Structures are given as structure tokens and as C-alpha cells.
Amino acid sequence: MQFLEDRGRWQNVTRSLQVGLKPVWKRLGYWLLYNILFALMPLGISMFFHWLAHHAVRTEIAKSPEVLFFSVMVAITTHGDIVQNGKLIEELLWVGLCRSALLIGAIFSAILYGGLMVDLVFKNGELGFASGVLQTSLYVAAALFLISLFIQVAIGRKEGNVATC
After folding, report:
1. What pLDDT, in 10s, does the model give residues 73-124?
2. What phi and psi, each to the nearest 5 degrees, are found at residue 30?
3. pLDDT tens digit string along 3-54?
4. Which pLDDT does position 109 carry in this prediction?
5. Contact, 136 vs 112, CB < 8 A?
6. Burial of 146 (0-12, 13-18, 19+ CB in 10 A)
7. Taking 90 as the threshold, does the pLDDT of residue 144 lie above it?
8. Cα separation of 7 and 4, whole Å?
9. CA angle 61, 45, 68 (to 5 degrees)
10. Are 125 and 119 in contact (CB under 8 A)?
11. Structure pTM?
């Protein structure tokens, strides 16, 4: 009899975990597919065409703004998710800090884009400045990706809690 009671408790625990995790995985799946994949698509296509033309991919990528496009797109779409789900996650104190970091990151990426375009126009694309911009934009993109990931998980968890109530 004890075995059946333990089995019933275990089934309740696993059922509650499954209900709680489904919205997180669903949100992350949509986010990875529609935001991240489509934000990386211009970079992937650019790298593919440079590879087909037998150009040095790293050199050409340093001169192109696709990494900055990724940073801006990830930051702004996640900011939109925060605005759309504001009532759901408003009690989380760190969301305001993340929201500010996303906006600052998007603005900083746009400034780097402007600097890269000015450098390409006036200096004919010398690699000194462009490689520095590439390295900085990779750091910014990674930071914005991680912040966005945390926000998406938080929204998914809150959606799971609302669905189980």
C-alpha cells in the first residue's frame, strides 16, 4: 500500500513539473526559431556568399554589420516581449535592469554600426577599426543574448505559473 501512495505522490510531482516547464520550453523554442535564427540569417548568408567567392570570411565579416544587426534585433524583440508581458513579470525587480541593459545595448550597437559605416566610407574599409568593432560587437551580442535568454525563461516560467493556477 505504501508503494501506491509513494507512486501517486511521485506522479503528482512529475505532472506539476511538466505543466510548469512546458511554457518555458515552448517560449524558448519560439524565441530561438523566430528571433535568434532569423537574426542570424543575414550573417549566415553573408558568410556563405563570402565562402563561395573564396574571400577570407573573417576579414569580410569584420567589415559587415550583420553581428550588430543581430544585437539590435535580439535586444529590441526581447524588449518588446517585456512590454507585452509587463503585467506578468512586473514584480521581478531585475527585469527593469535587464530592460535598461537591452535598450542601452541596442543603442550602443547602432552607434557601432554608424562608426563602422563611416569607417568603410572614408577609409575604404581598413581592418584596424573594423576588427575592433567586430570584437566589441561580439561581446555586446553575447551579453544581449544572455540577457534575452534570462528574460524569455522568466516569462515562460510566469506563463507556466498562470496556466497552473
Report:
1. 999 999 999 988 878 777 777 888 999 999 999 999 999 988 888 887 777 6
2. -65, -40
3. 555 555 555 544 544 555 588 888 898 899 889 999 999 999 988 988 898 8
4. 94
5. yes
6. exposed
7. yes
8. 5
9. 45
10. yes
11. 0.78
Q: How far apart are CA 116 and CA 101, in angstroms?
A: 22
Structure letter (DSSP) for residue 54: T
Question: How many Cβ atoms sit within 10 Å of the Cβ of residue 85?
Answer: 18
CA–CA separation, 4 vs 84, rounded Å?
A: 44
Domain residue spans in the chain?
A: 2-164
Three-class SS state of 53: coil
State the DSSP H helix or E strand holding residue 103, giving kind and residue range, or none if neither: helix 94-122
Cα–Cα distance, 6 to 3 (Å, whole number)? 5
Q: Could you tell me if 109 and 74 are in contact, meaning their C-beta atoms sit under 8 angstroms apart?
A: no
Cell numbers that stand for 40 in this block: 542570424
Residue with cell 543581430: 70
